[in-house]
Amino acid sequence: MSKEEIIINFDEVSFDFGIKKPILNEAKFTVRRGSKITIMGQNGAGKSTIFGMITGVNKPESGEIHIGQGLSIAIARQVIPRAEMDMTVKEFFENCFKEKIYNIDPRMDAVLKIVNLAAPADRIIKSFSGGQQARLLLASALIQDPDILLLDEPTNNLDKDGIEHLTKFLIDYKKTCLVISHDSEFLNAFTHGVLYLDIFTKKVEQYVGNYFDVVAEISARIDKENRKNAQLAKEIQENKDKANFFANKGGQMRLVARRMREKAEELEEEKVDVRREDKTIRSFIIPTPPDMNGDIISITSFSMIKNHKPVSRKANMVLRKKQHLLLTGPNGIGKSTLLEALASGTAKGATITEGIKVGYYRQDFSTLNFEHTVHESLLEVMDEQIEENLRSTAAGFLLAGELIHTKIGSLSEGQKGLVAFARLVLQKPGLLILDEPTNHINFRHLPIIAQALDKFEGAMILVSHVPEFVKQIRIDQILPLDK
Q1: Is 277 helix (H, G, I), strand (E, B) or coil?
Q2: What pLDDT, in 10s, does the model give residues 139-173?
Q3: Where would I find the beta strands (DSSP E) of 285-440?
Q4: Residue 398: is it exposed, middle or buried by C-beta count within 10 angstroms (0-12/13-18/19+)?
Q5: What is the CATH number of domain 6-215?
């Protein structure tokens, strides 16, 4: 096979989740051998669905998908399924293959080295941090040595070193790779082209070039189409005005009026259906309870992980109203474990003032009941269950229409994140605990979320590996777990 050969071809492919949820409508695109392609689109547009169609998990309603004969495919998923959390590292990697692999140990060692993770074969998967689990997900795809590598949000939970390591690997990678990500700097380092899923037309637009070139090209095209439409709208109005003028004159002038109306109709047909940009969530605030005074949380000691063992450290931190704390440290040091203990009230050395309501955003969304609908999930956290408030908040997070009656487990990861934020708004917490709140979220929403967190009037504890996001939020104290 030549390097230029097309190895993935979607030919007028249509797909939907039930009658009311079309995802693709006669989508067409191709991927050539050895190319590195980014898949872009709004949360819920169907990016992960396309991966499912490439792997054969999802079958098209119509059209054809051609994958090069004999080519192997592996996917690094966004999250480790709950059923695999109790496996050992070795069992987790063995589970990647249909048949028994006799040289699994050296292959494990090789891929763990690539993702820069020390992971003993007998360690249980759920004992790893979110960032370490992200590396395990990547390694689980690499160990299969596929011809086509699919990466679904691979930078989620990764610290700076992890992202640098992954970026270098992809730059040097010789095989075909398709990536879903919202991390623009990461994508621009290796992307050859972009497939853009338009959530409105359900089509796939194909662009060539690095990520920033493509984003600029899309913006320029939209500006040009808007200008053309504005000019046509002006001409259409002029023709309609003339038609009305001549129609009132009677006689031969009515014929001129008819021609003017026909000309206006022709111009209407020339108008371009401009691709509507991704919707962004509405600006929001996370309200706090009234009459909140004094200390909200005090931390005199905390536990962190050193050489795979918990170690206690002393601290002297008190958070009151409008005070925001950033926890820092590399993957695996115990940030998520500490946040979970703080949120559940089981952290030794930490005291949350009685009566303070805690809003907790978990990076794996395990605080959400996947069997609940969006409506049930939001209703669950409301003190006053006013339907109008629920629906207005949901709509602000793009959770309107059919989505509000969709089960949480059927949502995309990005939509689960929006549900988690909507719950915080309705919950009105005094203490906000946030573990990687940018994961899976469309980049267009991030400035709005950052603004809401910056203005949060209660106490806040944040973990985030995205410096651009953190810069937009007022941080009063930093607790580096590795210092």
Answers
A1: coil
A2: 999 999 899 999 988 887 777 888 888 888 889 88
A3: 297-306, 309-319, 324-328, 350-352, 358-361, 431-435
A4: buried
A5: 3.40.50.300
Residue span(s) of the chain under CATH 3.40.50.300 come to 6-215, 297-480
Q: Is residue 128 within 8 Å of residue 119, measured between CB atoms? A: yes
- Residue 272, pLDDT > 70, answer no
Could you give the count of Cα atoms lying within 13 Å of 131 in the half-sphere of its Cβ?
28
Q: pLDDT tens across 29-40, in order?
A: 999 999 999 998
Q: Is residue 182's pLDDT more than 80? A: no
Count Cβ neighbours within 10 Å for each residue of 449-480 and write b for 16 or more, e otherwise: bbebbeebebbbbbbbbbeebbeebeeeeebe
CB 429 within 8 A of CB 343: no
List the 193-197 sheet strands across, edge first: 73-76, 148-152, 176-180, 36-41, 193-197, 204-208
Query: Quick check: 308 pLDDT over 80?
Result: no
Between CA 29 and CA 208 the distance in angstroms is: 12
For residue 151, the cross-strand partners are 76, 179
CB contact at 8 A, 19 and 56: no
Lowest-confidence segment of 217-226, 279-288, 428-437 by average pLDDT: 217-226
Nearest Cα to 411, choosing from 44, 83, 55, 25?
Answer: 44
- Closest-CA residue to 281 (of 434, 122, 414, 174): 414
359-369 pLDDT, tens per residue? 999 988 889 99
Cα–Cα distance between 286 and 432 in angstroms, integer?
A: 9
What is residue 373's DSSP assignment? B
Residues 78 and 134: their CA atoms lie apart, in Å, by 8
Strand, helix or coil for residue 223: helix
CATH topology of domain 297-480: Rossmann fold (3.40.50)
User: How distant, in Å, are the alpha carbons of 46, 75, 374, 388, 439 from that of 415?
Assistant: 11, 21, 10, 21, 11
H/E stretch holding 10? strand 6-16
Average pLDDT over residues 212-234: 80
Q: How many helices (H) and strands (E) does the chain have?
A: 14, 17
Q: What share of the chain is helix, strand, coil (3-state, %, to 5)?
A: 35, 25, 40
Does residue 442 contact residue 434 with C-beta atoms inside 8 Å?
Answer: no
Query: With contact defined as beta carbons under 8 Å apart, do 453 and 438 qualify?
Result: no
Cβ 84 vs Cβ 92: under 8 Å: yes
Query: In whole angstroms, what is the distance from residue 470 CA to residue 476 CA?
Result: 12
DSSP conformational letter for 88: B
Instruction: Phi first, then psi: give them for residue 31, nearest 5 degrees.
Output: -130, 130
